[in-house]
Design brief:
single chain, 342 residues, alpha/beta, Rossmann fold, 2 domains, eight-stranded mixed β-sheet, six-stranded mixed β-sheet
Length: 342
Amino acid sequence: MTRGFQFVCLLLSLVIAGCGSNPGADSPRGQDGANATGKKLRICLLPKIKGISYFSSCYEGAQEAANELGNIELIYDGPTDGDPRKQAEMIEAWTIDGVDVICVAPNAPDVVAAAMSEARQRGVHVITWDADGTPDSREFFVNQATPQSIGQGLVDAMVHDVGGPDVAGDVVIVSSDVTSANQNAWIEVMKPALSQTKLNLQTLKYPGENAARALADAQDVIKKYDNLKGIFGISSVSFPGAAEAVEQAGKSGQIMVTGLATPNDMKQFVKSGTVRSVVLWNTVDLGYLTVFVAEALASGKLDVDQTEIMAGRLGIKPIRGTDVLLGDILVFTPENIDQYNF
């Protein structure tokens, strides 16, 4: 037998042994969710806009969950101007990079739907959080609260703050982008709820995720409507902008402002008396739950037939269809707002 022939036989034996030595070769992930190579799951958290306190607090909770789970490499990035086209570009880049899960808070669901669907077709798990996308573009939606509870909660807060159900007058809504799915869902609840009160909805404003435009829009309605009793700021940018406009106009206590923002962003306005109620949910918990859902999905511990998920310190959270529910709204008032720090 020649030395060359011996070498070929040895090489063939090694190849054959290698083919039968890895029973998990068809499944690149172990039971703990990490890659079979020992690499961590790469989970991307994509906010509507990066750099504002709302989404920064969500990231805080997401990082807490990643640290707790231990098998996660958390990647947090997003457009600094809220441009959904940039969201789509990031989804495309992460898909090419072969990450495990992309968690999207879509600013315009139709704009990012194609990129999300393409990611799924290439084997990347896709979920939504904070705001939902088109149903066929994602697997699960981590829902902070139902549109009904948020929309009704905002109207209830305004009725209380202006002095009760017998107070009549005008109100306006300062939203975000006209394409923002979650704000639009809340507005669809707010309109009929307001029709049951003596408050008259005069107009809707859409300043986008732009603080200067939110301030300008609020200043405009203050000048335009003589019987203005309240302004809803239903994004974490428009709410402080509306409150600032009321203070600059010297109308604190005359025009009430309520809406959705983190308690830390609104404490100064609550303490000055411009704002009496801040409606939101625990944003840290929202980010935390999102990572738990992403990890469970990527590691094969979550499927569409489940009705609940165990989420670390949050305990068991219900699943309704493909919606994983965080819980109900919180209302921050002068009496309790100092208890919260996010």
